[in-house]
Specification:
Number of domains: 4
CATH topology of the largest domain: TIM Barrel
Number of strands: 38
Structural class: alpha/beta
Number of helices: 21
Radius of gyration: 30 Å
Strand content: 25-35%
């Protein structure tokens, strides 16, 4: 079977060494900025050079993440970062921002670009767009099924599929939850993970937005058969021991799959559960799991592994029935029916100190396995991985001896006529094969030795050392074929000014749009049912000027069905797969800089809606780059879920999603610890609902309408009702401006995101 890459994460050098020594074919890391894991240690300057050299010397590749949204004033920093990374020898850059992709393709034409999962590619049309932007690889959304992966792989691009680790609850690149709640943007690598917190719904309090970790160990054969060329492990914030354990498990099973040999995954799964799990694992969306099949609502962190039951506890000591041996240094927790009882602390002599509250019947869990950590550390401490090389040794009398090693040829002393014992193939192999203190391992050696030839042992050793040095240097010098780097030139900002902006009303209510026909310059219909019959029925009631808002998350067949029903109407696009001439680029396309605006215009966008993460000042600057649209009231989705929290709470899995009656419960909300509501707003497609999560408080910029009217925006948009549109128009005339109220929020109007 064709080679499939195993790709492991590394947040710092120890994790990178752990990944390589445990069998990773490639490692992905962050640089000194602009990576989606800003809180990892990451790699900078000499550290990145050392990381590249370490990988290349051992036959592994290194990719660097540049997968965040970037402001115009940061583009030069991105250029400097990537220029230095290219000089260090990275094998590819992983990108999200369309403007960054444009920058790198323009200035580093030989650099391989990978479309991050943050780009939300989920169907063939999206992959085609990625290819047009210069991507050689796409990382599909984790919500993609095997059928989606198979369709994308048919295009011929490399396809990188997540197989293990934490899942984002929403479609990656489309999540504003952390950004809008606390100003820490997931699109900028600063996600605070509010999805892992508890929420209340229908009188119950659980971690409704916390998925289980993915484990596709038993699905590798199916994923490979679907066309995946790279299998990706998540975890740049994880400790090196985690990287070692997970990489080793997937290396062993993947090798079996590629060799066509059945592999018993039981011991590997036990290792994976012990190192980190959230109530077990989910097999993931790729194999059709959904709803309760992907969630872990009881607790959001490491569950550990059950090792016993408490029989009694008194005076700080406990009697426990064990089902697995304990090790000195293990981390232990006792849990009862009502939740965690507390952490059991081991003294240096190995005795346990039991906290108050531990009761008979409590279950004892091991959250840290000291022996597993020790084994993991040993797995990379010896640095046993070497690069296999082939060699050819030549010794002809009267000519310099030569050794070709890994494609590099060196010459040594002149071969003499033997006066005594001649050089034998056995002695040559013995001396030339001593590569143990290098990163090289001799895979094969062809000896061409003339009869009666003689060389001293010292000459053979010197030849071997010289060849090994040159071969290692060649490995470290590996670069992509074309390393052209063009000087940075900032794109000139145009002097675009639209005059007075158009007023647009967006609503999912047909009646509301019909009532507003005379008040709005344009209408946007946001359908809640994307199936062909329902969409055609709704559109038949609306005037031709009403454009159709397409949601972010539609697979290939669903998008085709929706576009067929829409016909020649204008569409408002939230994904690159949906772009076509005359369309409107919506907020889901993350227009955060002028380069992204240019890319979207090149894809056919008549106007570009600016990212909700822009401040008003940033938006005013971007309005000079081309026809820009600015949302002045309403709520864009904070995230889009493939699973349904309502179904998950009821224990329902993937079966029956297509015709689920629960989708009619529009307006159900999750309530956080501070009483703030997150409203669940579903839309229906052929394979079932996607659930949008919207902020309970309405975003409003109406008090800034006089300034907004003069900023040069091509259009301003109200998401809501005719009455709210009229309020915006009144505010634009300088009266009736709405002041901030309890039920509204300024969003990022004044304060930007981290």
């Amino acid at each position: 079977m064709e080679k499939v890459e195993l790709l492991a994460p590394a947040g710092e050098m120890s994790a990178l060494i752990a990944a390589v020594q445990n069998g990773a074919d490639a490692v992905y890391v962050g640089g000194r900025g602009f990576g989606a894991r800003a809180n990892a240690s990451n790699f900078d300057g000499d550290g990145l050079c050392k990381a590249v050299d370490y990988c290349h010397a051992r036959g592994a590749k290194l990719y660097m993440t540049v997968n965040t949204l970037v402001r115009d004033d940061e583009m030069a920093q991105v250029y400097d970062l990537v220029r230095d990374a290219v000089a260090a020898g990275i094998d590819a850059a992983i990108v999200q921002d369309l403007g960054v992709a444009r920058l790198l393709r323009t200035h580093f034409p030989g650099l391989h670009l990978h479309a991050s999962t943050q780009m939300t590619v989920m169907n063939l049309s999206g992959a085609l767009r990625a290819g047009e932007m210069g991507m050689v690889r796409v990382v599909p959304a984790r919500e993609c099924t095997l059928a989606d992966i198979r369709a994308i792989a048919q295009l011929g691009l490399e396809v990188e599929v997540f197989v293990h680790g934490a899942l984002c609850v929403g479609y990656s690149g489309q999540c504003l939850l952390s950004s809008m709640i606390g100003g820490r943007s997931g699109n900028r690598g600063r996600c605070a993970q509010p999805c892992r917190l508890p929420y209340a719904m229908d009188g119950k309090k659980k971690h409704f937005l916390s998925p289980a970790d993915l484990c596709a160990l038993d699905e590798l054969d199916a994923i490979v058969a679907a066309g995946a060329s790279s299998l990706k492990i998540e975890g740049r914030l994880k400790r090196p021991e985690y990287v070692a354990v997970v990489t080793a498990a997937y290396r062993r099973v993947l090798d079996g799959v590629l060799e066509g040999k059945p592999v018993d995954t039981t011991p590997d799964r036990e290792e994976l559960l012990a190192i980190f799990n959230r109530g077990g694992f989910t097999r993931g969306y790729a194999v059709g799991k959904n709803d309760a099949g992907v969630m872990a609502t009881a607790r959001p962190n490491h569950w550990g592994v059950k090792v016993g039951t408490v029989l009694g506890a008194k005076g700080g000591r406990a009697k426990v029935r064990l089902i697995a041996p304990l090790h000195k240094g293990d981390g232990l927790e006792a849990r009862g029916a009502s939740g965690d009882r507390g952490i059991l602390v081991q003294n240096p002599d190995g005795d346990l100190r039991v906290p108050e509250g531990v009761r008979p019947g409590d279950v004892l869990y091991r959250t840290t396995d000291a022996e597993q950590l020790r084994r993991a550390q040993e797995s990379w401490a010896q640095e046993h991985r070497q690069t296999p090389v082939d060699a050819r040794f030549t010794a002809h009398i009267g000519q310099p001896c030569s050794l070709e090693l890994g494609g590099q040829t060196v010459y040594g002393e002149t071969v003499q006529l033997a006066q005594g014992k001649p050089l034998t193939e056995e002695s040559a192999r013995r001396q030339l094969g001593k590569l143990g203190d290098t990163v090289l391992a001799l895979r094969s050696l062809i000896c061409d030795i003339a009869p009666d030839a003689f060389l001293p042992v010292a000459a053979l050793n010197a030849l071997r050392r010289q060849a090994a040095e040159r071969c290692t240097a060649a490995l470290l010098a590996q670069r992509l074929p074309d390393q052209t780097v063009l000087p940075y030139e900032k794109c000139k900002m145009s002097a675009y000014h639209a005059g007075k902006p158009l007023f647009i009303l967006q609503s999912d209510d047909v009646e509301e749009l019909l009532c507003a026909q005379g008040d709005a310059d344009e209408l946007y219909f946001e359908p809640r049912d994307l199936t062909a019959g329902a969409l055609r029925e709704a559109l038949a009631l609306l005037p031709e000027k009403a454009a159709v808002v397409l949601p972010t998350a539609l697979n290939g067949e669903e998008l085709e069905e929706a576009l067929d029903a829409v016909g020649e109407r204008r569409v408002v696009c939230n994904n690159v797969a949906q772009m076509r001439p005359g369309c409107i680029a919506d907020a889901g396309l993350n227009a955060f800089n002028s380069d992204t605006m240019r890319v979207l215009a090149g894809m056919g966008a008549q106007r570009v809606t600016l990212s909700p993460e822009c401040t008003l000042l940033e938006a005013e600057r971007l309005a000079k780059a081309g026809p820009a649209e600015f949302i002045v009231r309403g709520n864009v989705p904070l995230m889009t879920l493939r699973h349904c929290p309502i179904r998950a709470e009821k224990g329902l899995d993937e079966r029956g999603r297509e015709h689920c009656a629960l989708c009619g419960r529009k307006g159900t909300a999750l309530t956080d610890r501070k009483g703030e509501k997150l409203v669940l707003s579903p839309y229906h497609a052929r394979t079932g609902c996607r659930m949008q999560v919207r902020q309970g408080r309405t975003y409003s910029a109406l008090e800034e309408m006089p300034r907004i009217m003069e900023a040069g925006f091509a259009a301003v948009r109200v998401i809501g009702t005719r009455q709210e549109l009229l309020q915006a128009k009144a505010a634009a005339r300088g009266h009736g401006a709405e002041k901030k109220r309890e039920a509204t929020t300024f969003g990022h109007l004044y304060k930007g995101v981290e």
